[in-house]
TrEMBL record:
GO terms for biological process: ceramide biosynthetic process; glycerophospholipid catabolic process; sphingomyelin catabolic process. It comes from the Eukaryota. This is Sphingomyelin phosphodiesterase 4-like. Keywords: Membrane, Transmembrane, Transmembrane helix. InterPro entries: Sphingomy_SMPD4. The gene is LOC117563091. The keyword Transcription does not apply. GO terms for cellular component: membrane.
Length: 135
């Protein structure tokens, strides 16, 4: 059992490193464009901040002064693929692709459906966030 756990941990580390490199490449290439869109005060700017802001921005209680100073710096918008680095998320995506294959969807159309669903989910959350702030 320990050998299997060690193999899974190794695969997870490799997956995290691969996703980090991909997201770093995208952030380096499109960072200026993401900054420009996320700095807008209108709805596209709020939507961009929803997708590209770090979700771990909640204050932590036990921080050293150096890490507190580091966390208080303004954070640039960036793409983070960290959510994909769990096998649970990958299994859900695999099941969705399997369901798409059963329903005779191609992998491309399944990908488009998944991306559209994720975008619509973020769109609804952004709209609801705006409605909750006005009330």
């Amino acid at each position: 059992a320990t050998r299997a756990a060690a193999n899974q941990e190794l695969r997870e580390r490799l997956l995290v490193r691969l996703l980090y490199r991909v997201s770093s490449l995208i952030n380096h290439r499109f960072g200026a464009h993401m900054d420009a869109v996320c700095s807008r005060p209108d709805f596209p700017g709020r939507l961009c901040r929803h997708f590209l802001s770090d979700g771990d921005s909640a204050p932590r209680l036990n921080q050293s002064p150096l890490s507190r100073r580091w966390s208080e710096r303004p954070k640039r918008p960036r793409l983070s693929l960290r959510r994909l680095a769990s096998f649970r998320t990958l299994m859900v995506l695999l099941l969705i692709y399997g369901l798409g294959a059963i329903l005779s969807f191609s992998p491309v159309s399944s990908s488009i459906i998944i991306l559209t669903g994720g975008f619509l989910y973020g769109l609804v959350l952004t709209l609801l966030q705006d409605k909750l702030k006005t009330h």
